[in-house]
Amino acid sequence: MKTFVKYFATLMIAIFAVSSAFAQGYKIGDEAIDFKLKNIDGKMISLSDYKDAKGFVVIFTCNHCPYAIAYEDRIIAIDKKYKALGYPVIAINPNDPEVQPQDSFELMKERAKSKGFTFPYLIDEGQKIYPQYGAQRTPHVYILKRDGKKNIVKYIGAIDNNYKNANDADQKYVESALDALLKGQEPEVKSTVAIGCTIKTK
């Protein structure tokens, strides 16, 4: 009986440790698990669909947040530049539309069309994916590098250091990280604090 109790206690500690790590989200060097989310065109999208990608720029963003809106043109520019080099943008709306109606699926489609999004804009229905990543803000960026069948987290944080004006940003974190990865190097800055709106959940 004592052996069973000891075994059970050890098992519960291990489960708690794994759960705690999961709740905190990904760290640099972690493997990001693939997902399957609905795009604005109704199709389901997974990272595995991108057979030739070298990696991904996964950005949690939304319709209503002033910070997300301020970065939209920069996100489009990043996608246009780096998609051709093997790192496409995958945008995910993590917000609960019942809490923030401006982030409904229908309004996502309207926003993407009006802005001319060049990348998938996925909805995190049930809010299952953003907690895996540990995203806390919109926008919140995760750069993944493909390593065989794995997608390894190489950068987490902000797009740059000035959300108000791209021309005033003298630290372009995402672009610098991608440039380093394309040269076969590690990003000099691996993580920054994401600046934006909190993710809306019940």
Topology:
Layout: H1 2-24, E1 37-39, E2 44-45, E3 55-60, H2 66-82, E4 89-93, H3 105-115, E5 121-123, H4 129-133, E6 137-138, E7 140-147, E8 150-157, H5 173-182, E9 197-198
Describe what this molecule looks like in 3D.
- The protein is α+β, with helices and mostly antiparallel strands and 202 residues long.
- It has a single domain (27-198), classed as Glutaredoxin (3-Layer(aba) Sandwich), CATH 3.40.30.10.
- The protein is 33% helix and 19% strand.
- It contains five helices and nine strands, in the order αβββαβαβαβββαβ.
- The strands form two sheets. It has a seven-stranded mixed beta sheet, covered by helices on one side. Strands 6-9 form a two-stranded antiparallel ribbon.
- The longest helix has 23 residues, at 2-24.
- The protein is globular.
- It starts with a helix and ends with a strand.
How would you summarize this macromolecular structure in one to three sentences?
By secondary structure, this protein is α+β, with helices and mostly antiparallel strands. The protein has helices at 2-24, 66-82, 105-115, 129-133, 173-182, and strands at residues 37-39, 44-45, 55-60, 89-93, 121-123, 137-138, 140-147, 150-157, 197-198. It has a single domain (27-198), classed as Glutaredoxin (3-Layer(aba) Sandwich), CATH 3.40.30.10.
